[in-house]
Specification:
Elements: H1 20-32, E1 60-67, H2 72-75, E2 80-85, H3 98-101, E3 107-108, H4 111-123, E4 129-132, H5 138-149, E5 157-161, H6 167-172, E6 179-182, H7 189-196, H8 201-216, E7 220-221, E8 227-236, H9 245-256, E9 261-265, H10 286-298, E10 304-306
Parallel strand pairs: 2-4, 4-5, 5-6, 6-8, 8-9, 9-10
Antiparallel strand pairs: 1-2, 1-3, 7-8
Helix pairs in contact: 1-5, 4-5
Length: 333
């Protein structure tokens, strides 16, 4: 038995608009003394100062594309309009996006251009705008969305985050984000600091996810199988239970609901600097993965997605190379 997604829930999306002037005020407020994430660097990004993430005032974008490799209700038939932002507030030694998250690949992109990219992705029939690693770019994103709404943008926004968010910033996003898609990467702060360079991950991650759930609730999927609102939690199973996924599942059930949609991911492989760490230097085995899936089912989780462990021998097709025009191999014909 595997987790399957549910159908039949119809949600009529409301047109939510936020005043452009208010968004620009937020931009300057948060960037002048940056506290967008739990690092709380308090540096002035508007004057060129940089903190942990090394990001400045202008959004860095490495790629914008029609993406078919996300979960079924995100990619749908026509793909997810995915925008990969540069820089990251997590320095994961195993990051598959290290070229843009830690080597700072990508181009500075104006607010106007970012809004135009969103409109272009909608014109390609994408089901949503999928913001990958948005945490450190929240003010600029909101500004661009406001601009794009005025040009006719009307598809859902997906907040696709590694989960190291400031709960207060998440609270300020109420009404602006349709779908939250956070990782819940660790259930202990020790591996979070050792392997991702971040402190107090668990508290900030869990409080942020609770706030996300309060705002949007369970994932709502239309008749065509595409999500238009709600929470979808990603759980990356790691070697030797480094992620503590079972403990995270206990938290989700007790503090949220076992009706929450999950994406239990088996795709971990030792990328970037992972080979320097013995525990991270191998892929997970099938037993490790199936143990987590079985535990989720034991807790009563039914809404969500698992991966075919056998097919992961070909998973490199979905490993990105941001130095190439075609980022993912599966686009090559």
């Amino acid at each position: 038995m595997t987790l399957k997604y549910y159908n039949g829930i119809i949600f009529i999306k409301q047109d939510l608009k936020i005043g452009a002037n208010k968004l620009r005020e937020l931009t300057y407020k948060y960037l002048e003394k940056c506290v967008l994430c739990p690092h709380m660097c308090r540096i002035n990004r508007n004057t060129g100062e940089t903190g942990f993430c090394n990001a400045g005032p202008i959004p860095g974008i490495s790629s914008a594309m029609v993406h078919h490799g996300e979960e079924p209700p995100i990619s749908g038939d026509f793909g997810s309009g995915t925008i990969f932002f540069s820089h990251c507030n997590m320095h994961c030694v195993y990051c598959q996006n290290y070229q843009i998250s830690q080597e700072s690949g990508g181009k500075d992109t104006s607010i106007l251009k970012l809004s135009e990219i969103m409109i272009e992705l909608q014109a390609k029939k994408c089901h949503n705008i999928n913001l990958v690693s948005p945490t450190i770019w929240v003010p600029q994103i909101l500004d661009a969305v406001s601009e794009a709404r005025g040009k006719g943008l009307n598809i859902p926004l997906v907040y696709n985050t590694g989960g190291y968010d400031n709960p207060k910033i998440i609270k300020s996003l109420e009404g602006a984000i349709d779908i939250y898609m956070p990782d819940m990467r660790y259930s202990s702060n020790l591996p979070a600091e050792k392997y991702s360079g971040i402190k107090n991950y668990v508290k900030n991650n869990r409080e942020s996810v609770l706030e996300m759930y309060r705002q949007v609730g369970n994932l709502k999927i239309s008749r065509n199988g595409v999500a238009n609102k709600g929470l979808l939690i990603r759980l990356l199973v790691m070697p030797d239970n480094i992620s503590g996924t079972r403990e995270t599942l206990d938290f989700i059930k007790s503090e949220l609901s076992n009706k929450v949609s999950l994406s239990i991911m088996a795709q971990y492989q030792p990328e970037y600097n992972a080979l320097n760490f013995r525990q991270l230097s191998r892929r997970i085995n099938e037993d490790e993965y199936l143990e987590v899936v079985s535990y989720a089912e034991k807790l009563g989780f039914e809404n969500g997605w698992t991966q075919d462990f056998v097919s992961l021998s070909k998973e490199d097709l979905f490993m990105p190379d941001f130095n190439k025009k075609k980022v993912f191999k599966y686009y090559e014909k």
